[in-house]
Amino acid sequence: MNNFAYIDGTNLYKGLQGVGRELDYKKFRVWLLQKYRIKTAYIFMGYIAKQQQLYSYLEKIGFILIFKESIVCNGKVKGNADSELVLQSVRDVFEKEVDNVVLVSGDGDFSCLVDFLREKKIFKTILIPNKKYCSYLLKKKQCSLTFLEDPLIINKYTKIKRTPS
Question: Looking at the domain that runs over 3-160, which CATH code has it been given?
């Protein structure tokens, strides 16, 4: 089966950070493979040149990275790659590349994508970093939602975030 994961990189990172956890990307990739048989895992994020070492590591452990050019706005780096995630997933569906889809985000902007994937009968679940990061638009879909902060699974792919002493 060609099961794909489409990961909102910023939402995943900040969502787990919000519950005091740090993602172990290698363990997360293995968990996706074992739990959902994810053959192809995309991570969508803004590009920041000084993060090149991280990007190389993510590719080495089996993620495909899709970037959006980052901009600085009010001193904060912005690199929202939601439209790239939607475009890639729809492209894969129409090119008949994918059998099942797992989304990783709590962003309500993806509610229309959930509808599309359900219509095509390839939607599996949405993995949401934490309940705080879950949009009402996704909750009301009455579809499969998995909260990554669940105590039964969070230790499989994260570590407790250490605070500087």
Answer: 3.40.50.1010
